[in-house]
Specification:
single chain; 107 residues; mainly alpha; 5 helices
Length: 107
C-alpha cells in the first residue's frame, strides 16, 4: 500500500489522483502504527519487549525526520522555475517500500 500510494502521488496529474494516493498512503501508515507495535510486542521475549517497542517508536520518528529532511533537500536542489521538487520527494518515498517488496520476493 505504501508503494502504491507513493507512486500515485508522484505521478498524479490531477488533484483527485494526488488525494487518492494520499488516502492510500495514509491508510497504510495508520495500519502500520497499529500493527507494527502489536506484532513486536507479541513476538518479542518479555525481557526485551519494552526496549523493542520503544525502539520502534523512536525509529518511526527518525523516519519522519528523514522525510522532512528529504523534502527540504528536494526543494533546495530543484531549479527555482521547476515545480518537480514535490514529485521527486514523493517518488523518493516509494524507494523503501520497493526495496522491502523486492527483498520479500527474493527470500
Amino acid at each position: 500500500l505504501f508503494l502504491l500510494g507513493n507512486v500515485l502521488m508522484a505521478g498524479a496529474t490531477s488533484f483527485a489522483a494526488l488525494m487518492t494516493g494520499r488516502a492510500i498512503a495514509g491508510f497504510a501508515m495508520g495500519l502500520t502504527y497499529i500493527l507494527a507495535p502489536l506484532y513486536v510486542a507479541e513476538v518479542s521475549p518479555a525481557k526485551l519487549r519494552g526496549l523493542l517497542t520503544s525502539m520502534l517508536e523512536v525509529l518511526t520518528n527518525v523516519g519522519i525526520l528523514l522525510g522532512y529532511m528529504s523534502g527540504w533537500a528536494c526543494d533546495r536542489l530543484a531549479p527555482a522555475s521547476s515545480s518537480s521538487s514535490w514529485r521527486t520527494m514523493l517518488g523518493l518515498g516509494a524507494l523503501p517500500p520497493a526495496a522491502i517488496l523486492l527483498g520479500a520476493l527474493l527470500v
